[in-house]
Structure prediction request, 1016 residues.
Amino acid sequence: MNLSGGPTIARSGEVAAMSTVLSLRGPVSEFAKFLLDVAEKWQREWQRRRAFEADPDPSKPKFFITAAFPYPNSPLHLGHSRTYTITDVYARFKRMQGYNVLFPMGFHFTGTPILTMAEAIASGDRELIDLMVSVYDVPEHDLDKLKDPLSMARYFSEEAKKAMIEAGYSIDWRREFTTVDEEFKRFITWQFLRLREKGYIKQGTHPVGWCPVHSMPVGMHDTKGDAEPEIGEYTLILFRIEDEGAYLAAATLRPETVFGVTNMWVNPDTLYVKVRLGNKVVIVSERAAFKLRFQKDGVEVIGKLKGSELVGKVVVNPATGRRVPVLPAEFVDPDTATGVVMSVPAHAPYDYVALRELLESGKLSRIAPNVDASMLEPIPLIEVEGYSEVPARDVVEKHGIRSQRERNKLDEATKEVYSAEFRRGRMRRDLAKLLEFGVPAELKPYVEAPVVMDIAGKPVPEARERTKLWLEALGYADKMYEIMNRPVYCRCGTEIVVKVLKDQWFIDYGNSEWKESVLKAFESIRVVPPEIRQEFLKTVDWLHERAVARTRGLGTPLPWDKSWIIESLSDSTIYMAFYTVIHKIRKYGIHPSKLVPEFWDYVMLGKGDPEKLASKLGIPRDVLEDLRSEFDYWYPLDSRHSGRDLVPNHLTFFVYNHVALFPPDKWPKQIVVNGFVMLEGKKMSKSLRNILPLRRALRIYGPDTVRAAVLVSAELLQDADFSDAVARSVMTQLNKVVKHVENAVESTGDTERRETLADRWLDSRLAIHVKSVAQKLEELRIRAASIELLYEMEHDLEAYLDLRGGSIGPAYRRFVESWVKMLAPITPHIAEEMWQRLGHETLVSLEKWPEPPAYHPETIAAVYYLRLLIDDIKSIAKVIKTKPKKAIVVTAPRNWWRLFRAAAEFAGSREALRETIKAARELGLDAKRAQRVARRIVELVQRLDPEIVKDLLKVGELDEQRVLSQNADYIAAKAGLEEVVVLSMEEDARLHENLPDEARRKLEAVAPLRPAVILQ
Prediction:
């Protein structure tokens, strides 16, 4: 019997010979087919009754909830279902709480992915065509529909809509739109005109992610895997090669460490090139030269050479005048920045390890015979608490790193040192002693002055900027941009580079006043789960200018330059507001040409005179006011749901744009973020061909199974793991729901009406569940809520029947009816079917959340006590030689509950033992026994369920003799005994004559809730 424990859900890999989900096509069982049929029935009924169409209703509080609309370049798969299912569960729950809930949906056609995929299919890309047919279940006769971008978008948006309907999402489909609808384009035109007026859109020169093939900026939606290109700025420091008119261009993120360079690193197997960069000839990797062409004018390759040809040369450090050698290192990546690295072994673990390997191998004398090992000694530059003068050595030894091939360890060590030095480090004050410029003594102070005044002794962040500016002023530093999370690929397959775009239109997310307003908005936005808030704040901190338009793709032309198309992450930031009015724009037949900026100013912001606007546009005033009223009723957005991958872009842009365009009372109230979905323990990906289309999953297991299986496997930020085993476990529980409903229906009028301990216990458990599940759903702890609903509540029904010996009492149906209601947000179809079978004609989806029945703390404690005792009897029986037939159970004196209360009231504090001893002494126990009994009771309280302890404090005491006597037959049956005799310590004299010494010792150990058990 399990009266309080949770379920054990089988995980993928735990079931031998488990069938793989990907091999299945139709329903896995008759019950799965039943679930599918039930779902289709209730989806038709919801549509017939227009159950989820939401209109303003001043008599109810409103709740406006949205999820990120899908991008229809392929069917929805299981990963998409997680965000939408969580959103739907929350929408359904809020509806049952009495809110007027609006949950709309649209489709995001904007951008280049659809264009790229349509072009690939039209050109006969066999790999993509096979993916569509074999993985995504696209019929071959539909392939022609995918060759045109707009046709592809419409095809997959229809597929997505069917999937959402089949999954049971409670969406108001009247408000559906696409981002290429003319009405939406007019809305976006208004948005961008107003952003430009406010100074948030500007023309300038900025670095952007760039596709070299399509010659256009790219963002997350334009890349394979939806990876946002993260742009970082390297400082190029030019080291003059002795006796040559050329420079080695080292790229670094830490220019302040240039004072500690001991040598340069190149990859000996890499091809390097000489390029003209301004008025200098610099040497970089061939790939770097290619990238620099997108960032600087006049980059010209004038020669090539192997990295091995550079090894052994001597260069001059422009910051110190020190001569340093060029040495080989295999860790140098020619595809990262310039492919030339300056070596700072005191502060860079990679450099420290590479030099140590080189010196220990004895290769130095052969590679660079003129270089003395002393020249390569680490040069301390930065002081940081907790580290020696050579922090790189400290972390290398700490992590036990022996080779530069230990990349993971080196990356971890590097991150540790760089972070500590950036946050807490200061440049040494004696930095000037490192300067070795060959200048006359009388001029040396002037050469040293900038270092002494602006860099030495300064915190690392400040020194970094000062060093960069100093070297730039001397003509020895430049900048180069790089994709920090490279490689990132355009959907056409080309690796993204950084281009410095001139005269491009940017949205200025770096605007300091705008950032400040966004941070203020986040103070009032509920972020769920709370730990994701820091990711938002970090995103706001580093966000800067972002290219706002593309030269190709579907979407809205830039209003003031129609040769550009507004890119997909820029036109999807305030579309939630568009949901509030699009259905009425259509209802009133308003032509898109009338949706001018002044129209949106009035509808969205309440600006302007409606009478004059009506006259100008030819739209009746009452229509304009109705549209304004509809928007005003639904806004602000109460809850926005999306995946974690959209935190550093869309979700943050969403807040930025609301802050820019709407007053504070219309800013979003909540953002909910969830993790991803794995399949059978593996990440779903095209390369693994393990993507499970949502519609197929629904056919295999039934919609309610898929919904629940996605929900029970992980809380919000964790990655859910959908597997055949979890799905079948969920189906088993749903089947039990059906059987319990059948029991409730069959026993109606035939129920044992007498209220028993079991009925009071079941009512009390229901009271707990009603409140507990509601709290979990409100907190978006949907996994915990789903497990409680599907597993724990079913366990309670089984325990109830067990307590009643299989008979059904009056609490059973009460519990089942409330249970079915509570299941409605998670598994809505089976809940509707069961609600109907229970005799109701209403839709359970529109029922109110159940009210908790009366809670009986003494009953909950009594059943808990019974379980403890039965477990004790079974444990004792295991260790005796003969099977016992009888148990004598001796309870503690009633007045000892005073000791229990003392221990419980002070539980967890030092006073607990002292107060319990005090209470025992007041009951007349001698000092020695009082201490012994008190310690036993304090320890007991610590081991008990804290909720049970609270219940016992509410009721004061438990009549153990009555509870055990009334349930003696139940105890005997569960413990495998013929008889249970219940006595109290007051009656123990009757036993002494016949009790052996061991039994008498048991009496000495009696305490409240811990009776002596004597088996015979």
Summary: Residues 1-19 have pLDDT under 50 and may be disordered. Residues 94 and 101 are 7 Å apart (CA to CA). The first helix runs from residue 30 to 49.
